[in-house]
User: Which sequence fits this backbone?
């Protein structure tokens, strides 16, 4: 059976991310190789890997080579730094690319997007938002908002399984505030 893995904000080929996010790598080449190794140690070729934006800032012609090096069927929710997608003539190797995706797992709806939001579909009826963008090291920013940061900065530069996300959800004492009640 295939597993589902989710991550965000890999920033492959982005030299400045080492400084901006204080990532513990000497060079961007070391960074990129470590992420590929970390991901492939968890993700099998038959698994699904959902990347919630900012996969790479490398030149567009290099991106397909990077995508191929990651195990699994890769889908991309586009982020603000995925500028390579402007090259409409190139196949980057993602099975699907779009601005938003929903998955249901064990009766929970997960809304996947790059940016954290205050409200999303069924956010006050038990759905969970998975996002990246913030580069925070804590996967839970605000217990009043039922969302989880799946970015590599919050998960030791590795993808997170949907089962691990379920464990995080179960541990948090969510206190959602319905925007209709404000």
Assistant:
């Amino acid at each position: 059976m295939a597993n589902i893995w989710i991550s965000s904000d890999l920033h492959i080929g982005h030299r400045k991310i080492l400084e901006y996010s204080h990532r513990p790598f000497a060079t961007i080449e070391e960074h990129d190789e470590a992420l590929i190794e970390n991901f492939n140690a968890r993700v099998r070729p038959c698994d699904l890997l959902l990347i919630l934006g900012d996969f790479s800032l490398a030149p567009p012609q290099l991106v397909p080579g990077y995508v191929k090096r990651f195990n699994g069927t890769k889908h991309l929710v586009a982020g603000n730094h995925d500028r390579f997608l402007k090259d409409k003539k190139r196949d980057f190797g993602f099975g699907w690319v779009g601005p938003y995706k929903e998955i249901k797992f064990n009766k929970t709806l997960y809304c996947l997007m790059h940016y954290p939001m205050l409200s999303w579909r069924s956010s006050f009826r038990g759905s969970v938002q998975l996002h990246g963008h913030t580069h925070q090291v804590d996967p839970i920013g605000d217990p009043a908002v039922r969302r989880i940061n799946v970015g590599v900065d919050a998960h030791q530069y590795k993808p997170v399984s949907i089962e691990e996300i379920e464990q995080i959800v179960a541990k948090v004492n969510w206190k959602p505030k319905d925007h209709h009640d404000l």
User: Anything to note?
Assistant: The chain has a mean pLDDT of 93. The chain has one domain: 4-173.
